[in-house]
Model the fold of this input.
Amino acid sequence: MASTTGNCLCEAVRYEMYGKPINSAVCHCNSCQQFSGSAFMANCWYKEEDFKVVRGQECIRTYNEEGTTTGGTMKRSFCKTCGSSLFQQTAGLQRAKIISVTSGTMNNRSLCQPGLEVWCSNRRDWVSLNHNGEKLDRQ
Ligand SMILES: [Zn+2]
Ligand SMILES: [Zn+2]
Done:
């Protein structure tokens, strides 16, 4: 049985996750701000084998962001109908077979307590997050 589910705003895309997330990460980089359209991203990491799209695979589009600061291609997936940011993978996460799911599309957001906060050097002045995870200036 899935431990939680997720869906985009229009509900065309639905997914399921099994077990506990490996980690949760907040990122303040410019690309994550642009992709999310917000001040930062807060994502939950699952093993690829613990994540399954159960509806609307045909509605998912993936943007390959080239030339990221950490090198390699960042794959960023979203719903073609409503534009919700769904999940993404850095080159490193692709190698580790880990998928980073946007916590705003998850139905159990309590699973997403940050264990890692990156690009704090680019954090907006008014953002202050209360967690005990690791904080890095870059990534
Ligand atoms: Zn949608
Ligand atoms: Zn980022």
